[in-house]
Amino acid sequence: MSEPHVYDMIVVGGGPGGYTAALYAARAGLDTLVLEKLSAGGQMALTEQIDNYPGFEEGVDGFTLAERMQTQAERFGAKTEYAQVDRMDLTAVPKVLETSEGTFYARTVAVATGANPRELGLPGEAALTGRGVAYCAACDGMRYKGKTVVVVGGGNSAAADAMLLSRVAKEVILVHRRDTLRATKIYHDPLMQAENIEFRWNSVVAELLQDGKLTGVKLRDVNTGEETTIPCDGVFISVGRKPATDLVEGQLTLDRSGYIVADETTRTNIPGVYAVGDVRTKPLRQVVTAVADGATAVHMAEEYLAGGE
Amino acid sequence: MAALNINQEQFREMIQGDKPVLVDFWAPWCGYCRRIAPAYEKIAEEYGDRLAVVKLNIDEAEQVTDEEGVEVIPTLILYKNGKALDSVVNPGSKAAIDQFIREALEK
After folding, report:
1. What is the pLDDT of residues A101-149, one digit of tens each?
2. Which residue among A29, A36, A50, A160 has the highest number of C-beta atoms inside a 10 angstrom radius?
3. How confident is the model at residue A308 (pLDDT cuts 50, 70, 90)?
4. CB contact B87 to A (< 8 Å)
């Protein structure tokens, strides 16, 4: 049997952190592969306008930015495989990654799997996604022009979603399980002043009503237990994010919310394995902090490959 | 081979054949559609000899989109001999498209 090819670095996940790691690795002369299950960009790919990534004074669309990051990394020799990673052995030598497109081997691994929107966990939620249930107002909001939508959540992203939808939809109903918003103060006044936003405090969604498509939601008051039905065309779920760490559970140390424990060096508890971007424990999850992680991970990987660390 | 853009007339003709046809119902304004595009191109390369892998812009094919009951995009439908074998909405990975094609062809 011929010796399997061993990459210097395999990056799992092709978001901004992943492709920055690939760019730095390829430029450092490392033999580099990115494993991406769908397309470059991760969460960023569904962001229509990014205004806080420096250098684009008019803003930039997330999908385009992602494609450019991919092209840039590939220009220096990084490769991309559209593969779903099923299993990893991160302590093996070399490290083993079993995927839908075969098994790959690497000396170092950058885990840049990101985070996904958290679900409510209600029956029918997955089947109704795209049929009334949505997680991204900027992506799907335009479909609800002139209609009635419910937004679930009380943080910054729920507040931003409600504001955006209030400009498109006929009526927005914001459902939050507490009696006040967790969102930053700058959101409060515009939300309260918007004429077509109604608030349902101390309430949770108990049930999604449907006839193949979403037709409404049943709300439950967390104090009284009283239930009310609200007919609506869409429900936007904005209750935070969940790190994509199922794949590394049991190998890498995770914090209580499931994020990979790593400091600014991006080093994890396993030598030669780095946590890049939203998947890492950190105070601010943004494109700019993800790309910084990508660069740092390669710096640490180079030291590790040289026999240091 | 790249995924071919087709129009309604080509759609009606192509799906009648016994070579299976995979159709991506999409639109230029749809973010989720753009996300599956690179994987879909890869599918076109890999399955090119067994399937016709095509794309139909729903904005230019309203009649067919209605007839086929496509309400959300991206929707992939696999046709053979004029019949829809199966469909999938917004697949989350290239692997999910692979699996959809394999299972649909076995039907």
Report:
1. 999 999 999 999 999 889 999 998 988 887 899 888 876 787 898 999 9
2. A36
3. low
4. no
Q: Which CATH class is domain A6-116+242-305?
A: alpha beta
> How many structural domains does chain B have?
1
Name the token pair of B20. 């299976």
> Per-residue pLDDT averaged across B57-85, rounded?
92
> Per the CB < 8 Å rule, is B90 touching A129?
yes
DSSP A245-279: -GGGBTTB-B-TTS-B---TT-B-SSTTEEE-GGG
Interchain contact, B95 vs A63, CB within 8 Å: no
The band of A1, judged by pLDDT with boundaries at 50, 70 and 90, is: low
What whole-number distance in Å separates Cα of residue A305 and Cα of residue A6?
13
Phi, psi (degrees; rounded to nearest 5) at A65? -60, -40
Confirm whether the ipTM is greater than 0.90: no
Q: The domain spanning residue B73 has which CATH number? A: 3.40.30.10
The pLDDT of residue A309 is: 47
Residues 19-58 of B with CB under 8 A from A: 29, 31-32, 34-39, 42
pLDDT digits (tens, 9 = 90+) for A277-302: 999 999 888 999 999 999 999 999 99
Among A45, A63, A130, select the one facing B90 at the smallest CB separation. A130
**B95/A37 touch (CB, cutoff 8 Å), yes or no:** yes
- Amino acid at the residue A215: T
Instruction: Write out the residue range of the structural domain in which residue B56 sits.
Output: 4-106
> Which CATH entry fits the domain spanning A119-237: 3.50.50.60, 3.30.70.2730, 3.40.50.2000, 3.40.50.720?
3.50.50.60
Every domain range in chain A assigned CATH 3.50.50.60: 6-116+242-305, 119-237
Question: Could you give the C-alpha distances from B49 to A301, B1, B2, B43, B52, in angstroms and in order?
Answer: 42, 9, 12, 11, 8
